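>> received
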Amino acid sequence: MIVPDRTQTGSPLLWRLVRLAVRTFYRVDRVGPPVPDGALVLVSNHPNTLLDPSVIQATAGRTVRFLAKSTLFQGPFLGAIIRRSGAIPIYRKMDPGADTSRNIEMFAAVQQALADKHAICLFPEGISHVSGYLEPLRTGAARMVLTSAAAGHPVTIVPVGLNFDRLPMFRSRVVAMFGPPFDGADLVKSFEQTPKDATRALTGRIADHLRRLLVEADPREDLKLVARVDRLYAAARGVSDDPAQRVDRRRLIAAGIDRLRKEDPEQYASLSEDLRLYDAQLRAFGLRDSDLDRRMPAGEVARFLLREGARALILAPLAVVGVGCFAPAYWLTWALSRKAPDLQSRATWQVLWGMVVYGVWIATLVTSVGLTLGLGPGIVAGLGLLALAPVGLMAFEREAAALKMTRAFLASRQTPLRARASLKRQRAAIASVLDRVQDWLSRSSAGG
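>> returned
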């Protein structure tokens, strides 16, 4: 196991706090093979400014150094964090005041890091964005890998696809898909003779690997539709909810929706209308897709209610106290994050402002208790609030899930059997259309 130089790879305490912040803000699923030891370049899509590096650091399984635009190193607060992270500055033409001649230093720092068998991560799109599609890649990542390999330091490439369900939403889900490692060893000789051609070839290879890990869909329109169709399809076909399989399904669904809309608009309109009518009927009965398949005998319902009622005696008060204590900080953080300049920055603003607002809020409560009741109660209040934050969040989410399940039990039992059977037939018909679209896509790909 390679032990990285801590003076270069950043503060271990900082990265532990980053991992905690990411897993608090998002529900993170990590899929794919383990990241190998040795010299490594991770390449990823970039939908979420500063939280993308944080998600990768939280899931990579080893310490990673990032390339970050030089302007992030400025400023007393954020700049200090970036500098302590072990990041390497990159000087982009688009950044005001950036001296692009200093990229010579950047490439030298990267080559030294790879020679020292560090893990480097960069975002070859060159910008953070919320287009929902992989943007054309810059060639820097390929050039770094081939330059290092040509100098006698082979480098492994690991693609990472970051798939956010609802990008700026607290406690939404993100799937970090780590693809199989590959390299550009077969291009090294070509790189020594025609570097531009070899670099372009490896850049294209990186793009191909990344696309296999991404659900590409417009986040403002199609992404919600893709997620909705996936839930319906998963319920109709009884398929696994494994994160990797879910991303693979959604990739096909997104491609199918886009293809269908362009090449068969009538069938697309028909499918959209069928889905709209089906959803309207589900809402009328208060059901979800999965509720149609539930068999809920009276005894099972009674046991569920007794079990959840007993848990609620403990968890409900914790959830209420947690909400009561932290609601002001939560809403202030949310209000401040709405001032973010763009969608891809909003989650980052929530995390950064959350660290400040929650810290100040807890300090204010502890100080108030200490001034009113004394030092001892103040210390106890501080320890209690630090414990209440994660425990209260867990209790709130557990009780919210139990309430949804209870609602599903009651709604399902109140829905007439004929209505449930009709809804299941509608769901099966929509799923059959999706099967035909997927077959169509498969045949088109094979023919192409």
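>> Residues 1-7 have pLDDT under 50 and may be disordered.
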